[in-house]
Amino acid sequence: MKKGCVVCYVAAIILVTTLLQTCSVTAFFADAVPQPFVSPGHGFPGFNSMRHRNILRDEVTARLKELGNVSDSKDVLQRTFLSPAALAAGRLLAVWMKDAGLRTWEDELGNVHGRSDGANATAPALLLGSHMDTVIDAGRYDGALGIVTAIAAVKVLKVEGKLHQFPRPIEIIAFSDEEGIRFQTTFLGSSAVAGTFQPKHLKNVDARGISIGAALRAASHLGTTESVSSLKYNPASVWGYVELHIEQGPVLEAHGLPLGVVEAIAGQTRLTVRVHGSQGHAGTVPMSMRKDPMIAAAQSIVSIENICTHPEKGVGGSRGATAMSTAVNHAGAIVCTVGEIHSWPGASNVIPGEVMFTIDVRSKDDSDRETNVVRIEGGIHKICRKRGVRCSIERKHEANAIACAPGLNDRLHAAAQAAMKELPPFRNNVSALDDGGFTAPTLVSGAGHDAMAMASLTQVGMLFLRCTGGVSHSPAEHVQDDDIWAGSLALLHFMEGVLGDLSR
Ligand SMILES: [Zn+2]
């Protein structure tokens, strides 16, 4: 028996030593290489964010799944402004807002609000939110994520008894329309709250000829200019607006981190170009005698790529003289897309008579955008002149860039960093990066968000959450459960920071 025990001891020591070696090798790799963000499970002493993992992670993922099933189509996710599924989604969100300790109401544009007065009902309110409408064949995270994570963070404040101590009112808003799918007009919900909703839009009609006003009346709202105008918040009653959203791009994934802070939302110019040539027979007109608008369009599109790959900086008026250093410094600062092209009459045996294409130009710097739009326009006119075709360029849409508020961004940076440090194995990676002055990545949003509309009302801040492959507006849109946890936890840290203002 005694001899047997010695063998057991030796075996046990060998086993423990082997395990320790394995663990230290794993730890080495965890430090050296950014690892996929996996669930930490249990048994991390001192890991205080294990508190409320059920609310911040598990309940959020379950709710996103449930909300993702609220659709107007059996086959794909589709919730457009005031559709039956959109209204059902609003009711579901109101239930969850109530569960987080908020009183709720639906406003005259179908936005769903949940509010707690906190310790001072008349102090300027902290607004949080995102949109509950979706594109057609959507993913379940775009928009919904920002609402459901905010509800979770507020629910933790309630559970911990801090909601009524909050120094200012907290209000979550689920905006009824951001994507603009049904009425081809974006930010309907947030523009009403921000006071920039244009009453003429009440006459916009959907594919079935139903106007926004009529759709509102069908959903038991008044649908009048007055009822919508009354939604405008008094700027003095609002402290700021914070939105968490999926990145919809690949940058955070490339950084190997779940969270980033948005520095600005890019401004946009949309152009429509029409090139008119000589329509003719594909077999009978010699190449030298053609005025083919398709070739002019093709050459123009390549010129647009060249300009946007090597943009010229607007500030300082360097227009017309491309400095190489400027081009290098500004590479990536502007993005240009030709997403739509049509030819008339569009037959394989006809030289087209007209070609129409669109250009979408975005940059965080309005003056850079304008400089390069002028270069694009000039380039197209030059190509058209050379090829003997006529072209016209129309500016269809112009929106200036929005800078996020530095004060809110500082708080969001700190909150994002604290959240990532609490969640292993990021804790190791972020701590290692800290030595080099690490801060959460700062990003520019190329996509528009409700924060863009809200910026005309109040200071705005945004957090981006990594999504797999940068894919969005697709059923393939995906966010890891633990990344969602990091997002909700960051919002909680942000609010706890505001709560800490009381003691300052
Ligand atoms: Zn969105």
From TrEMBL:
Organism: Physcomitrium patens
Record protein name field: Peptidase M20 dimerisation domain-containing protein
Source organism, top-level taxon: Eukaryota
Subunit text: Homodimer.
An example Gene Ontology molecular-function term: metal ion binding
Keyword Manganese carried by entry: yes
GO biological process, one term: allantoin catabolic process
Keyword Transport: no
Keywords: Hydrolase, Manganese, Metal-binding, Purine metabolism, Signal
Residues making up the signal peptide according to the UniProt record: 1-27
The organism's taxonomic lineage, starting at the top: Eukaryota, Viridiplantae, Streptophyta, Embryophyta, Bryophyta
Family of the protein in this entry: Belongs to the peptidase M20A family.
Residue runs in coiled coils: none
Family matches, as NCBIfam families: hydantase (TIGR01879)
Stored InterPro entries: Amidase_Cbmase, ArgE/DapE_CS, Bact_exopeptidase_dim_dom, Peptidase_M20, Peptidase_M20_dimer
Cofactors required: Mn(2+)
Ranges for domain Peptidase M20 dimerisation: 267-376
